[in-house]
Records
---
Amino acid sequence: MSGNMQLGQINLLDALASADLLRTFKRRQIERKTIIFTPFEQSNSVFIIKSGRLRVFLSYDDKEFTLAFLEAGDVFSTHTRAYVQAVEETEILLTPTSAFQATIESLPGVSLVMAKVLGDLLKNSITTIEGLAFKDVRRRIADFLVQTFEERGEESPAGVVVKLGLSTEDIALLIGTTRQTISLILNDLIKEEIIEKPNRRTLIVRDLAALLAWRDSL
Amino acid sequence: MSGNMQLGQINLLDALASADLLRTFKRRQIERKTIIFTPFEQSNSVFIIKSGRLRVFLSYDDKEFTLAFLEAGDVFSTHTRAYVQAVEETEILLTPTSAFQATIESLPGVSLVMAKVLGDLLKNSITTIEGLAFKDVRRRIADFLVQTFEERGEESPAGVVVKLGLSTEDIALLIGTTRQTISLILNDLIKEEIIEKPNRRTLIVRDLAALLAWRDSL
């Protein structure tokens, strides 16, 4: 699901207000940069963002992985393994999870919003896993690409063109990975408009600076 | 959210059938072990598991991360970055994602099931991220624990007791990580009933074999 399914927009705050369901929620105003919930949080509440912007992230020692930004109308829980921090001044409406069950039953649209938020978090979690699992092979692919373009690239109006003379399978063997992994990583670069792949054995670098920046970030 | 919120059970298949919404779905029977969808899937459909059991996993080279097992009544999409494989003979009901919008609107309970499935996937994704991000520090903690128990553990009916004489903060400094990371990892071991922490400076190993197996798995 995660982002591929258009979930139909509903304005949760308006819907809750007009169903008179907001009375049981407690308002809380949060200063910019405050970390409001951590994985060590004891309370088990659900909250809706009324205004502002929150960042949901995982943090391990010096590593931090942002999983989502929550905005007005989004729903989330205090009781997760993530940290929640205000990016700007933010107002939330809190209710105990046990009380929230009734809200879900009275207003089924709420679970659509939940599915949307969870889908976004899942999508970014998978990106994070790919980043961690692929770290080494990404670096080898980046080195291979940069080296190949430097050695054999030809300038053209579309960018630097390289006739690889190699299939994805050959590159995979060269780098010590699988065809699937090469495809996944090249697809990411294509989506980000850094490279183009007009046919099986040709690559075009559309944005060499971005390719170099990507390699140096690995 | 992810598993902490009891989402209220609905029997999606029954509900869809009685609302006469299953007619537009196409049945598909899948043999055990078949990989039915991959990240390279072109079609964009939603499916419901009618019977059997599917595994959703990420795969990178030789690494595989299972994110969920889907069972009868669960909903998922063909268009994700995960692989979907039949663990046993399975029957699914497929419909184009575009057509599924109407189903969601006619039967709001569907989005609750979606939220539940996404929550489970998210939970396991976070576990996977922790595993990847923590790999080295886990290993250092495991070594520290095993060594401490071997050197200073005292047998008791409850297990091997160790008076640490160290706070979590001291251990963190010793191992080169943060107090939060130590707490997260110790909490995992406590949840799995491998160790106990009756007070701040005492640890009990309830299952030494499990602790050793855990260390060797890292």
Note: The radius of gyration of chain B is 23 Å.
---
Amino acid sequence: MRKFLLIALLWVSGLLAAKAQSITSPDNNLILTFSLKDGGVPTYQLTYKKKEVIKTSKLGIETKDVLSFMDGFTITNTAKATFDENWTPVWGEQKTIRNHYNELLVTLTQKAVKDRFIRIRFRLFNDGLGFRYEFPSQPNLNYFVIKEEHTQFALAGDHKAFWLPGDFDTQEYSTVTSNLSEVRGKMKAAVTANVNQTTFSPTGVQTPLMMKSKDGLYINIHEAALVDYSCMSLNLDDKNMVLESFLTPDAIGDKGYMQAPTQSPWRTVIVSDKAGDILLSKLVYNLNEPTKFKDVSWIKPVKYVGVWWEMITGKSTWAYNNLESVQLGVTDYSKTQPNGKHGATTANVKKYIDFAAKNGFDAVLVEGWNEGWEDWFGKTKDYVFDFVTPYPDFDVKELHRYAASKNVKIIMHHETSGSVRNYERHLDTAYKFMVANGYNAVKSGYVGQIIPRGEHHYGQWLVNHYLYAITKAADYKIMVNAHEAIRPTGLARTYPNLIGNEAARGTEYESFGGNNPDHTTILPFTRLVGGPMDYTPGIFQTKISAYNPENKSFVHTTLTKQLALYVTMYSPLQMAADLPETYEKFADAFQFIKDVAVDWDDSYIIEAEPGDYLTIARKAKGKNEWYVGSITDENARTATVKFDYLPKGKTYEAIIYADGKDADYEKNPQSYIIRKMKVNSKTVLKQAVAPGGGFAISIK
Amino acid sequence: MRKFLLIALLWVSGLLAAKAQSITSPDNNLILTFSLKDGGVPTYQLTYKKKEVIKTSKLGIETKDVLSFMDGFTITNTAKATFDENWTPVWGEQKTIRNHYNELLVTLTQKAVKDRFIRIRFRLFNDGLGFRYEFPSQPNLNYFVIKEEHTQFALAGDHKAFWLPGDFDTQEYSTVTSNLSEVRGKMKAAVTANVNQTTFSPTGVQTPLMMKSKDGLYINIHEAALVDYSCMSLNLDDKNMVLESFLTPDAIGDKGYMQAPTQSPWRTVIVSDKAGDILLSKLVYNLNEPTKFKDVSWIKPVKYVGVWWEMITGKSTWAYNNLESVQLGVTDYSKTQPNGKHGATTANVKKYIDFAAKNGFDAVLVEGWNEGWEDWFGKTKDYVFDFVTPYPDFDVKELHRYAASKNVKIIMHHETSGSVRNYERHLDTAYKFMVANGYNAVKSGYVGQIIPRGEHHYGQWLVNHYLYAITKAADYKIMVNAHEAIRPTGLARTYPNLIGNEAARGTEYESFGGNNPDHTTILPFTRLVGGPMDYTPGIFQTKISAYNPENKSFVHTTLTKQLALYVTMYSPLQMAADLPETYEKFADAFQFIKDVAVDWDDSYIIEAEPGDYLTIARKAKGKNEWYVGSITDENARTATVKFDYLPKGKTYEAIIYADGKDADYEKNPQSYIIRKMKVNSKTVLKQAVAPGGGFAISIK
């Protein structure tokens, strides 16, 4: 009898040890199952409305110096929890965000190292899953070096995917839309030239990765709370349709230096059968820590213009003179011959300040104000900028006075040229200079090869640096808009002074050959998951040759699509990027940009299909105003706009800025019609949209 | 006739183009000849008193991205000059230094790149040669990346050499004495274990490299003014006895990032038929720029004791508790269990302050005062120290007050653990903390693997960092003593607040197994060329087991040899490294350390043979006091001490601290005799020296 009982107990405990653990989302649509497979390999699986989203997929981390966290595990504890809380972001698409999940925490122990354990924490929301590895404080685990993370996402089919080539240094690629099985064949053409790029696999892709299954499931994979860890890309096994995490190496090939207690970032899978749910998902933010900032009164959304597009188009220059190379502190700029095309002059900046003041803009960005632009690019120059020494024709104090007198801010510009040690050496001085001269926001840039050489834009070293710059900026009450930096992973919840990033092909590429007409119908499903983008739209003069006859590029949208972007490309930082003189020619269309809000009480996805079209409505924060934006790809269409988010029983005046009948992004981009109509919550509007076109509506 | 003239002119100009250019030293003993060899390859050659020192040797720099500077040159200009000036160092072995040289400046042009030229500048002193490459400002030369420098030193024979294995990260090897032809066979045994090391060749050696030819020429090769360039090691072609420069690579294998106008460091060859001339040579300093510091009153030589040897021997610990790992700002030290062996406690430091005050010492070094020592070593930990947060048992303010009340300084300690970005991030805060708390000198350290990973201690990146820390320290009027940093190259002329480096095996290695008995008979010929060493002598208790029974090491010198080191190992920073309680037991011998000066009007080499013995006398700065130190290797000897540097016609009292009759560094190290005698300028003293022994004399 004893022997039988023993066997039974062993069997039961064995069962328990291997027993699958499950949780569901609050609405029960999603089921997450964790279990150990043969050899004690941790796996998970995710279904949505009974369809497999992620098939049984392995988890694990391979290390260089201690026993890897890959197998030989047993489950020594499980814990479940529920959390439901509303929180208020400092800025955003919604006034209030609900953070509601069911959690499963598994503790896994490996016999091979006495008393060594890890935890994997799963949080299941109505809109998707987040999970991360945790390495708690314990006697037998301290330092370890990651060789590779092996988190798999086994997909249920050869999904349609919207992907960027996997790269350790840039995201400035056009999104490729294809089935996963086609990634390999399309990779070569997808890897267009960039000043600094490092692909890693013929089937490597970046996150956020957007996919759509044949049976209509929208699936987005990304990460949340990327702190002190290497950025995750994905490597596709295109035989089996399994994506696997691929971390960014450092200069010597290692992928992460860890000290317990610590954790990985969250790996996120957002899923829905409605495309709009992907756009509305706050899962990535919800997985980030609440902010500890006590005073956030200095963090405010910004609508701005800038001395920038005139340089991007080639009409003027960042550089002051034509020297081939300069040495800061040695080159006496006042003795050099100015090139006569410098953009950031006191007089020119004043014009922008006047324009901003006249039109209700908060700020003027000025690039090319400081010594060093003559040879900043492509030279891997260490001491490239000092961030405080202006050119002879840029009067810091006078412009501070002038801007302040008009209640306009100037946005500082810190192009680092990838020379990160140099930036950190100057950072306090540079921030102090900003405070002393009335600047409260900075656009930073990391164009080119990273110095220290061998490091990558997306490695742990730079992930650490970007956050260092942001947290130090907060000490000075400075807002940060970091270009060419890591794509956001919801950190703005914890650090709300991070008001923007680039980390994708922005409007500047319209001047570098053009973006695809469907570009901005994709970005909200990819790049904008995790944080806003400083896309800098608002180009009315779409033929760049009007500014610079040598530049044959043209913006691949109509004029009114540019207006729509202020609604469809959510950002607390919005630029009217074109030149003031152009806006003055189209004052009636420009009115929309003047009116549109940059901060919102709520957002509504009216129509959405990644790669095809978007129609979004938003309610301005604290106002009875709504704004609608609708865009299409290269195909004309008719949008169906509902207004059921308007308070019932009231009538509002809508101003509609739409493509003209014969508008076309290439042939007739500037054809538009502005009309007014009365709308109420029952109105349904059918609106024609031109190829590469869009429309914008303001409702008051 | 015309044709003939033309041919003649061409012939002459051709001759001129290839014609050797020569200069001599002011005393005509040295001749430097520059010429172009076939293919326009620049070469030089050096003779001393008609003996070849450097046979015809090639010069050149190979680049990665522009045409290399290797061949195809013609001489387009030569210029000669003479310079003769005395200058006064802030501290040193002499009050005044004469800088007297003849200079040859050749301008070399390569046809392959239009109008591109370089210069090579040769300076010939009575004690040797210095030369460097210069890249003047010009249209067709801006940025270039060095792949390797190919400066050769073709030697005239299989010289005896005193060498360290070539390494990009450490110099903490015992010097090997062998013929150059034996380097290859002895390399393996020479590369003893070090926490961070990177050898590069089976015949690679470091500089300063000391050699002695079979016909009695002493030759030393080093570099001067290493600024913003990669450190030079030497790779030996042991078939042909040619040494060639071997620069230190960065993380991606490149060896230097240059922007014209710029120059290489000076390559130096000190030569004499008198060993003492090597020790007296100021050539390396003379090649450095004069200081621009206006106020140097805050820079003063320092005699100090320290809470250090008790940790090196294992008697106490740097760490406060026994945790395996800590996280700064997270670990609450006040809640942890102290290990009871912490060295840097308020009470213990006060004992050292009392001892320093009682015995006329300027300062007390304290290591292990700050949070982070529990896991600082060998973990490649990024945020390892913050340089401002003391342990719970170290009261910063109280010790500041106490030290100041006794007119004693505390020397700050900044161990960086090789985590250089972390150090730079904290540098201003750390220096401000020093100023606020009465510290005016810091010992910094770079133990372990450099972070950013892939960089080396001796690469351009770190060379730049060390100088950054020194120049920033000067802004705060702080003196720097940098350990594990680059060996000095005379920069203390320009930056006199650099009062010390380690960059060799110091006294601590006596506790890590022992230094060779001839170690300090070599170091002045090698390590001390270019700058002083913080050797930290003065160990009276030579058996380490007396402090820590588990440590069987012993100091490989007699007690009085330790006294002699205060004279033979010149340094403006001198530590009495042993424990106060030990000095109190040997108060009579300790008197010499109390008396000996640390700054000098003049120095005299009485006897010198590298690797065998040294007898040096020095006159204290501004005083009628002289000090003599004499040391030997493992062989006993009789030193012959002259006193002809004493003013004539006066008699002085000399106190002689010498080995006892039966003294021996291993068997009887603490046997010594102190006696007095009268001396004058005509006295010649014969003094016996024990194996591994030495003696010291104070003359007043």
Note: The CA atoms of residues 8 and 14 of chain B lie 10 Å apart.
